[in-house]
Amino acid sequence: MGITTRTAVACGVDIGSTNAKVVLIDAEGAVVARVIRPTPRDADGPLIDARALLDAIEQMILSACGDLYEVHAVSTAGIGEDGVLVDAALTPLTRALSWFDPRRQTVFRDLQPRLRGTEPFDADSDPVRTFVGWVWAREQLGETSAHRWISLTDLPAAHWSGRPFLSDTLASRTGAWHASDRRWDADRVSSTLGDVELLPPVAATGEVVGALASARLREAGAVSAEAITVVGGHDHPIAGWGVDRMVPGALLDSMGTAEVVVAQTAAPPADYTRQPAIEIAPGIRSSGTTVLRVEELARNVQWASQNPEVAGHIRGLLDGSAEPLPVLDSGWFVPGVHGGGQPAYALDAPADPRARASAVLGALAIAGREAVEAVRRGGAGDGEVRLAGGWARSPGWIDIKNAVNGYRAAPVLEPQVTAVGAALLAAEALGWAPDPARALGGFAADLLG
Asked: GO biological process: what's one of them (predicted)?
């Protein structure tokens, strides 16, 4: 039997709130394989078992590679705020408290009277921030033997390379980091995590971490002997960077669990004056700034869908089988905001379920429009808007957004934009020159493991 020569590929991993994705691209940028599986969660709730996650990602890489591909570099992107305490061997000691876990509200409320630190940070202080998870993690078993805190997104690369680090776009999500001078706020860290020494060095997105030392993957022939790991980070900035590489100056409107509008700007963090309701992070492979705004999306629809009749009309409006009533800008629905706050109907909202469904989606589309306008004011300019995420494949929703916006925005054809963005980072770290348009404009294979 002859020896099979595997094709060299770069691998992007997206650790999402709902699903984890692995995408492989070749040196030209063509997507040749992908695997999508549910993000493994604790049976008792939304906690994530980090060891199970590491195992699942390696299984997904093996499935994507099969007998055809050999990974030469991998970069992981994903969830912005979740993480775990680890021991000296980088073995997780705690489970990860999800950014949307309702227990964060209680932790934040109890924490507020003793919060210290100098505002403004890169992101507003609210229950979603990483520092809330730090407090929760310290209360869990194993905290006394903790050596480091590692973000869930960075954990695979840290585990494979043996090098603890925190990607800079995730440092900006903590509520304790200043991207302007790449500095931790000692008071904020001490009042939440307890010791700044638990934080690993902050590394720039796109930087080479080290070797991809996985005996399991190497024995299977899925990675080359010289394979490297590359710093990834927060999913939305990496997705936005990939789209910006394809369409320079574009804003990405990514719609999934949340709606996030993100863009790359030329001004460096040191010169950037953060605008209200705007969050920032370092620019990716640049000296500029990542600018983003986050809006609640899925949670608002879930709340409204507790009424079965409203839920049925929402489904029809989203899939395009029904037309909305002319009440999109009625103000009858008040969305719950990012970081807390319950959705509600206005006092004058009618009981008619179709009217309520139309008002809900209209209010959410308006929130998305305002997010785009805020990011533009934040320095993104007048570049075109591209749409991504699961909601971008709902034709009725796109029609509603276009009606509210007054212009048409084109969806990105690639469904896993973050994973492909991470793969592009890995490929460029190898010195390859993949075509972003080829990577984000289609795919050659679809493997759902």
From this structure: D-xylose metabolic process
pLDDT tens by residue, 391-442: 999 999 999 999 999 988 989 999 999 999 999 999 999 999 999 999 998 5
Q: What b/e sequence results for 427-449 when a residue is b if at least 16 CB atoms lie within 10 Å of its CB, and e otherwise? A: bbbbebebbbebbbeebeeebee
The string of DSSP letters for 241-310 reads HHHHHHSTTPEEEEESSEEEEEEEESS-GGG--PPTT-EEEEPTTSSSEEEEEEEE-HHHHHHHTTSHHH
The tokens for 295 are 């809006």
For 297-329, b/e burial (b = at least 16 CB within 10 A) is: bbbbbebbbeeeebbebbbbbbeeebebbebbe
List the beta bridge partners of residue 183: 178
Q: Provide the pLDDT for residue 4.
A: 60
- The token pair at 410 is 């084109």
Give pLDDT, residue 142: 59
CATH of domain 7-235+416-440: 3.30.420.40
Q: How far apart (Å, rounded) are the C-alpha atoms in residues 84 and 149?
A: 6
At a CB cut-off of 8 Å and minimum separation 6, what does 23 contact?
Answer: 11, 12, 13, 14, 31, 33, 34, 64, 416, 419, 420, 422, 423
Q: Pairing mode, if any, of strands 385-388 and 410-411?
A: parallel
In the chain, where the domains are located? 7-235+416-440
99 neighbors 81 (Cβ within 8 angstroms): yes
Beta-bridge mates of residue 294: 260
* pLDDT tens column, 334-343: 998 765 578 9
**Weakly modelled stretches of the chain, pLDDT under 50:** 1-2, 443-449
- The whole-angstrom separation of Cα 197 and Cα 277 is 31
Strand partners, 36: 21
Q: Is 359 helix (H, G, I), strand (E, B) or coil?
A: helix
Residues 57, 59, 61, 67: what is their CA dihedral angle, to the nearest 10 degrees?
A: 180
Residue 391 is classified by DSSP as G
Could you count the other beta carbons within 10 Å of the beta carbon of residue 197? Answer: 10
- At residue 70, the 3 state secondary structure works out as strand
For 92, list phi and psi in degrees, rounded to 5: -60, 135
